[in-house]
Amino acid sequence: MCSRIARKTKQEFCKEDTVWERWVRKVFVGTAGRSATYTGRLHSVDTEGVAGRLLVALPLFTQDHAHHLSQLLGADVGDHIFLLAITSTDFLDFLPLVHFPLLNQATVAHIKGERVMLWEFYQAGPDGERRHNYMGGWPLRGQSHQALKATLKEDVVSRRTNLTGLHIRCLTLKYSPFLLVQELDDGTLRLSGWMGDLWQEVQSRTNFTYNCVYPEDGNWGKLQNEGGADGGGGGTWNGMIGELVAGLADVIVAPMDHTFQRSTVVDFCFGFTSLRYKLVLRRPTSQSYMWTNYTREFEAEVWVVIALFLIGVAFLVFCTTRFSPSETHVVTLGEALLMTLGSFCRQSTSLNVSSGAARAVMSIIYLTTTLLFVYYTCFLISNLTVSSVSPPFTSLQGVYDDGTYDLGYMKSTSINEVFQFAQDGIYRLVWQHLVEPAYAYLPRDDATGIERALAERYVHLIDETNFLTEYADHCDLLMLPNAYHVTPTTFAVSKGSPLRRVLNHHLTQLRETGIFMKYWHKWLPKQAHCPSRKVLTACTLTNVMTAFLQLLGFSVLAFTILAVEIYISRKHKVK
User: How far is CA 282 from the centre of its chain?
Assistant: First the structure.
C-alpha cells in the first residue's frame, strides 16, 4: 500500500501488485476518472481547488488505521469527499473505535479472496447504535467498481432511514391550520395540523423520538439590538430562533418564515408552502358613516370643486346681467348664488334673463347640476336602502392616506423585516409613520390583533390561511384582497445540522407521493358562511340622523337670523 499522499491519474499508480491493489486502481480509473487521492495514511485533506468530488482510499487493517478513519469522519471535509476504507481482515473488531456520523460518506470495501463486499455504517446520534447497510458483493475481476460508482452517485440520506435511538428536541408554537398543539396530562405536547401531521409522518418512517416544548418567551424569533440591516454587528435572538441558536433545541416544528436575518444563524428545510399576509379590519356598517351619509357621495376634493363651480357661475350670471346691453334686469350676486345653489338641489327660479350670454351661462348651470344631482341621488338612494358598505380603503396605500387607522402585526415575525428594512416606497412610509411610533404596542399574537381590529380603528396584517381557519365565520371582519408579504415557510434546524438533509429527503418523498395534499385537504380552511349583506332594508334613524340634524341646525340658524333682523328693524324704528 502506498505510504505517502499522492495524486494519481489513469497513467500513474502505486507499484504494488496484489489482487486488491489492482482492484483499487481499477476503482480509481472507473470512478474518479480525472483524478483522485490514494493514500495509506492521511491526517488532513486539503479540499481547496479540488474540481468535482474527491475519492480518498485508505487502509483498515489495524487499530491505528481505525483511529485515522475516525479522525477523517469527524473532520468537516464537506460533501465532495468520499472515503473508501479497504480491508481484507476481520474489520468488525476495529469498528467500536470509529464513530460513523449520520450522513458520513464512507464505504468499507471488504476484500475476501476473489470477492469484494461493500458496506456502509452510520449512527443516528453520538451514542446511538451502529447500523449497517450491505451494498452487495461482486467478483474482484468483475464490475464491482461500477457498483461503487453507483453508490457514490446516490445521496446517502436515502439509505439512512432507520433513526432508532435518535432523540430530537423541538420547539413549537400554535398557528392554525399549520400547527396545532395539545397539552397532555404528562406535560408533553402532541402536534397536529398540516405541518404537525407531516412531522408525525416523518417520525413514523424513521423511528426517532422527540419532545416538543414552547419557547420560554413565546416569540417566533427576532434579532434584538441588531447592529445592521443584514443582521451583522452583534445582537441576540429571542423566541424559537434564539433558543435554537443557543443549542437548547435541534429543530423548530412550526411554520417558520424564511428571512435573510434568520438564514444567517439557522438552516431552513425547503419551503413547502407560503404564507400570504393580508390586511384585516372591522367590516364597515351603516353606523360607520352615520355622520357622512350625505357627504361621502363625493370625495372632499370634488366638494371643493363643486363649491368653486357654484361661486364661479354665480359670478358669471351677475356679470352677464350687469353688463349685457340687452338685459333688462340686473341679478345681484346674492340672487345669483341662491339661484345656483337651488339649481344644484333641482329647484326652479323666478329670475328672467333675456341676453344670449346670460342664457348660455344658465344652460351651463342646468347641465352641470343635473349630472351632479343624478350621481349624488343614485349613490344616496343605494346607500340608504341597500345594506352593503364599502371599506374606507382597499390597499396599504389607502391605510396610509386615510390617516385615521393604526396598523400592526404580530411581533417577532418576518413581516417586521419587510417594513423595517424597506429603503423607500409605501412600506418605508408605513414603518416610519404608523408602525415604528407604536412598535411597543404591537400585538403579541394574532388573536390580540384581531380583538383590536374589532374594537378600534385598527388594521391587522395576518396570514390569509390562518385568518380563514380561525376567523372566517366572524362576519364583522373584512379581509382586503391584496397580499403584501408572501414568504416561504417550513421547519428550521440548527446551522449545519444533518437533520436538514434528512427532513428534506422525507418531505420531498411525502410531496411526490401525494401525502402533502392528502393532509392539506384534511386541514383546508372551510368556506365562510356569512350571510349576504347586499339586501334591501328599511332606512333606520342612523341613516337619516344627519339630515335631521342639518334641518335642526338650519332651523336654529334661521330663527337666529330672524331675531337679529327684528332687533335691527325695531332699532331703526326707534330712531
Answer: 22
Minimal CA–CA distance to 91: which of 123, 58, 114, 124?
A: 58
Classify residue 200 by burial, with Cβ atoms within 10 Å: 0-12, 13-18, 19+. Answer: middle
- Tell me the CA distances in angstroms from 74 to 64, 101, 157, 208, 432, one per residue in order: 16, 8, 18, 23, 50
User: Which amino acid makes up residue 557?
Assistant: L
The pTM (predicted TM-score) of the whole model is 0.70
**Domain 290-371, what architecture?**
Orthogonal Bundle (1.10)
Contact criterion met (CB below 8 Å) for 408 and 460: yes
**Is there a contact between 85 and 108 (Cβ–Cβ < 8 Å)?**
yes
Q: How many residues does the chain have?
A: 575
Each residue's pLDDT tens digit, 324-367: 787 777 888 888 888 888 887 877 777 777 777 777 888 888 88
Task: List where CATH 1.10.287 sits in the chain.
Answer: 290-371
Alpha carbons 487 and 468: distance in angstroms, whole number: 18
Q: Render pLDDT for 110-120 as a digit per residue (tens, 0 to 9).
A: 888 788 888 89
Q: Which residues pair with 461 in a beta bridge?
A: 279, 409
What the block records as the C-alpha cell of 255 is 411554520
Is a pLDDT exceeding 60 seen at residue 266? yes
Residue 487, beta-bridge partner list: 275
Q: At what angle do helices 515-523 and 499-512 cross, to 10 degrees?
A: 80
Q: Are 80 and 108 in contact (CB under 8 A)?
A: no
